[in-house]
Amino acid sequence: MRRPSPWIPWAVLGVVLSCLGPPVARGAPVRSLDERLVRVRLCVSVRDARCARDELMRALSAQSGASPEQERELWVLKAEVALLTASPTAVAQALDALVAEVPEFGVQERKWPVEWQQALAEALARRPDTSPPELQVDQGQRCQEGISCQWTVQAKDPHGVERVILVVSPGDGLPVLRLRFRRAQDEAWRVEIPAEILSSAELKVRVEAWDLLGNGPSGWPSGERNHSLAVSPAPVIAPPEVVDAPLWEQWWLWTLVGAGVAGLAVGIYFLAVPEESPSTATSTEPGGLQVDFRWPDQ
User: Fold this and answer.
1) CB-based contact 94:82 (threshold 8 Å)
2) Using CA atoms, how far apart are residues 123 and 237, in angstroms rounded to an integer?
3) Which residues are within 8 A (CB) of 156 and not within 5 positions of it... i.e. 6 or more apart?
């Protein structure tokens, strides 16, 4: 495959510079730092190391009063110029400074060659971990008055989470409580809020976490704010309604019926059984006199 001519990058750079207008093309003084940054980016885009180094030096000389966005761009351009021109040691130093000053920088912002991306990955791996754990909390969690409540958060850190604390401000003059979460799963941490403090309409809570390197605490909510944990009122249990039982369910009715039936049965029994007469003996005397002898039954 035929290699492109070495003059092509210079030609591209000349065309681009000419498009910027007469002041830039003719080498006239550049008035703003933004214009100097554009010139550095153009030199880097065509991989012209000498041009990129010279334009970067001019941009750094005009750095005074730079905005945060311009400062960020200068850190990126320093790393790119080092990748073009410097030794491996200087490249490592430039990339270490980039990931320290611009921690959110990613290669997706620039179309870096693979070897540049690998160098950046090595710099990211060298970066010391100074960040506390990341916290995620479901704000929809609610508790109920008078009942102990389970509260769960997600805490994750590349070096592991050491502890998570729930800071509770009950209000009403009660002291602040610090409740320790227990690990429920890999990143899930759970704490039980005692029922004794779940007596107001809401609690002020804050979550704090530390990693195994001692970084922290990370706080949720962010800043110095607290989260208002909603506490639902306890359900009102109505006393059972007293309803008079119907007549056929009254105890006294069936007592009277039972007594009446028993009395009727006794009466029928005595009426049905005939009364036995006492034992007698009759004797007839001469002359027609009849004598009856009666003696009681044994």
Assistant:
1) yes
2) 64
3) 133, 134, 187
CA dihedral 103, 107, 110, 116 (to 10 degrees): 110
> What is each CA distance from 217 to 122, 163, 165, 210, 225, in whole angstroms?
28, 10, 9, 5, 14
DSSP 119-131: HHHHHHHHS---P
- Return left, alpha or beta for 222; rule: phi > 0 is left, psi -120 to 50 is alpha, else beta: beta
> What gap in Å lies between CA 67 and CA 9, rounded to an integer?
31
Cβ atoms of 233 and 211 within 8 Å: the answer is: no
Q: What is the pLDDT of residues 119-177, one digit of tens each?
A: 998 898 888 888 899 999 988 888 888 888 898 999 999 889 999 999 998 777 778 89
126 strand-pairing partners: none
> Do the Cβ atoms of 207 and 178 come closer than 8 Å?
no
Question: What is the C-alpha to C-alpha distance for residues 239 and 275, in angstroms, rounded to an integer?
Answer: 63
Sheet of strand 188-193: strand arrangement: 134-137, 149-156, 188-193, 182-183
Distance between CA atoms of 22 and 242, rounded to whole angstroms? 100
**Block residue for tokens 């609690």:** 203
Nearest CA to 101 out of 126, 71, 137 is that of 71
* Angle value at C-alpha 15, between 14 and 21, nearest 5 degrees: 95
| Phi/psi of residue 159, nearest 5 degrees | -105, 5
Per-residue model confidence as pLDDT tens digits over 227-270: 888 888 877 666 666 666 676 667 676 787 778 877 777 777 67
Contacts of 276 (CB under 8 A, 6+ apart): 297
Exposed e or buried b per residue across 214-232, where buried means at least 16 C-beta atoms within 10 angstroms of its C-beta: ebbbbbbeeeeebbebebe
